[in-house]
Amino acid sequence: MSSNDSDTARSEATPEKCGWSKFSESKLIEVEKKILNVLKTTYRTWFVPIGSTVGKNDKIWTILLNEESKNTPLVLLHGFAAGLCFWCLNFDTVAKERPVYAIDLLGFGRSTRPNFSSDCLEAEQQMVESLEEWRKEVKLDNFILLGHSFGGYLATSYASNYPDRVKHLILADPWGFAERPEKLNLPIWVKMLSILFYPLTYLNPLATVRAAGPIGPWLISKVRNDLSQKYGSIIDEKETITEYIYHCNSQKPTGEAAFHSMRQGYAWAKNPMINRLDKLSNDIPLTILYGENSWITRTTEEQLKNKRPNSYVKIEIINSAGHHINADQPELFNQTVKDVCKLTDSAQNSNGDITKEADEEDNNYQETKNKIEPFNDEDHKIENMQLTNHKI
């Protein structure tokens, strides 16, 4: 580990210094249980020990659904400032036909929070190695890997490092792919906010929320009131999701500091993944799902095929969805993921070419997709650029 481990994480006025962290940890357990109680699928949760990967005794909080299925497992990686409960609208459906694992990334949620390196590439590699040690401990030989946003960035890095383990890489509105444009075409109000809050760019993105202490959940509810609406179909109490977000992020922000070291601004990575796709094995099929109204800069299918001319590449646009496509349009998202997983199984079982399998499945997929009406909420379109630093 680098000797200059995340000074940002240590110097910030962290909750431990306010006597708030232990209370927040217990509240996180409580609110997580409340969210997972809505699931219909049998599941188990536990801490997976991964040894001294970054810290001394690192552990990754894990959920497993449909453990008995023999189909290829699906592993879910959440985005920045999130946790495994963000998949609660998806668990039951995507786990009908296969085992589904989801984790709190190291440094986030209920997983342990070691100090990562402040070097962007080293911090990224530490994240990747924590995933590999987790895989070894849960004894997964290979799996379909799905990452949302920052989780998509890490999923791609993991697949590049451990290609034999990933049967298909699915990226949901992935952060950190495109290069930062020289000129940003932003609304005037966003530019004004950027100038106003420029001094805060040297802090971790959620430092303000932690500094708010007990009023943090209220602050999040004002900044991200759309999240309660997204999950309202299964979670009755409006404040549950905002409490979950707050308590996921009110403890020692080491995962956040790792992200801080990798980012350039809030919306771009220092080392964009598009420039490193040549390191991703041609044998790994790649499917990217983008929200129609997302603020994320899309990578085009042409760009991907230029980088991976001999590989399976597919881009799907989820209609009427923003960045949180799995919550904005859960039915469309779930069906798309199920179809990709089924395609992967078919190609694997027949030892066939996934491109040929995809051509055969495509008509069936389009017919199914057309039957699912997108949930059309104009409020979701407002989401595009609203406080980008809290949305990755």
TrEMBL record:
Its main location: cytoplasm. It comes from Phaedon cochleariae. GO terms for molecular function: 1-acylglycerol-3-phosphate O-acyltransferase activity; carboxylic ester hydrolase activity. Its EC number is 2.3.1.51. This is 1-acylglycerol-3-phosphate O-acyltransferase ABHD5. The lineage of its organism: Eukaryota, Metazoa, Ecdysozoa, Arthropoda, Hexapoda. It catalyses: a 1-acyl-sn-glycero-3-phosphate + an acyl-CoA = a 1,2-diacyl-sn-glycero-3-phosphate + CoA; 1-(5Z,8Z,11Z,14Z-eicosatetraenoyl)-sn-glycero-3-phosphate + (9Z)-octadecenoyl-CoA = 1-(5Z,8Z,11Z,14Z)-eicosatetraenoyl-2-(9Z)-octadecenoyl-sn-glycero-3-phosphate + CoA; 1-(9Z-octadecenoyl)-sn-glycero-3-phosphate + (5Z,8Z,11Z,14Z)-eicosatetraenoyl-CoA = 1-(9Z)-octadecenoyl-2-(5Z,8Z,11Z,14Z)-eicosatetraenoyl-sn-glycero-3-phosphate + CoA; eicosanoyl-CoA + 1-(9Z-octadecenoyl)-sn-glycero-3-phosphate = 1-(9Z)-octadecenoyl-2-eicosanoyl-sn-glycero-3-phosphate + CoA. InterPro entries: AB_hydrolase_1, AB_hydrolase_fold, Epox_hydrolase-like. Residues 368-379 have a biased composition (Basic and acidic residues). Belongs to the peptidase S33 family. ABHD4/ABHD5 subfamily.
